[in-house]
Amino acid sequence: MSQKKKTVWFEVQENETIEDCLNRMKEEGYTPMGRKEEPLFQQVDGEYVPVRQLIKFKGVLLDS
Fold first, then answer.
1. Which of 11, 27, 31, 55 has the fewest beta carbons under 10 Å from its own?
2. Rounded to an integer, what distance in angstroms lies between the CA atom of residue 41 and that of residue 26?
3. Phi, psi at 22, each rounded to 5°
């Protein structure tokens, strides 16, 4: 039987909403305890252009 990690970072995917990500966390038994955002850049003609914002939630395993 595999044991789950106590803390896992969940990234909001391009095709899902923040609410979808939070629901996915809950289904896996985690509750959000932190959030961080990072810009994602792409190089276009030698310049870095922001493409989108990466949103990640820190999930902590709930005790059953």
1. 27
2. 30
3. -65, -40
Q: Which domain holds residue 13?
A: 7-61
- Give the total number of structural domains in the chain: 1
pLDDT per residue over 27-63, tens digit each?
Answer: 999 999 999 999 999 999 999 999 999 999 999 998 7
Asked whether residue 49 is domain-assigned, the answer is yes
Q: How far is CA 4 from CA 9, 47, 60, 63, in A?
A: 13, 41, 10, 11
Under 8 Å between Cβ of 13 and 56:
no
- pLDDT higher than threshold 80 for residue 64: no
Q: How do beta strands 47-61 and 7-11 pair?
A: antiparallel
